[in-house]
Amino acid sequence: MDMRPELTDPLEERRALQDTESKIALAGHPLHAMLVAFPIALSFSTLGADLLYAWTGAAFWAEAAGYAVFGAFSIGVLAGLTGTAELLLVRGIRSRSASWTHFILAVMLLSLLGANWILRIGDPEGAVLPVGLALSLVAAGMTALTGWHGGKLVFDYQIGTKSDGIDRP
Ligand code: HEM
């Protein structure tokens, strides 16, 4: 006789937990997905401009890096606000641990971008070497990780989509 307890998956049992459709959207298109392109591109641009400054010594690149990291941080915060609203408002999103993992990664990334911006205020050139460049490198790595994980939420777990949740791990 099989003595193992009968285990059930709460996500499959409860219909409400299968609702993962984005609520912060424009004509059905999630704002978060539209906004994240900017911090991703600008975070890598900051690293590129820092490397060009280290290579050429031209003040232009240090200033460009300062503007890029400001853009990455400020639009990243906007994207974070739309993502957090989804996380808190949509039951099927907040009940999945992967959403919270993404939130933690994103908050770490935004802290790095914010620190990298504040460091450069008033002295964009002096801030690049070595601390600014080091922060840009770590932030670019964190951006890749957070962006990849965001894609995983959507394409692997169908979070933010209209899927009915069948066959979702
Ligand atoms: C700060 C808190 C954040 C929260 C709570 C959050 C939450 C979410 C959620 C719930 C989704 C699923 C799609 C949706 O419902 O819109 C998502 C997707 C995604 N997130 Fe975030 N996010 C945050 C910040 C960020 C940041 C800073 C980035 C930038 C690297 C990012 C990158 C992505 C990407 C690339 C996707 C996939 C978008 C797609 O292809 O449709 N997220 N995020």
From TrEMBL:
Transmembrane segments: 33-55, 67-90, 102-121, 127-148
Keyword field: Membrane, Transmembrane, Transmembrane helix
Pfam families: DUF2231
Keyword Transmembrane helix: yes
InterPro entries found in the cross-reference section: DUF2231_TM
Domain DUF2231, residue spans: 28-162
Signal peptide (from-to): none
Protein name in UniProt: Putative membrane protein
Originating organism: Aquabacter spiritensis
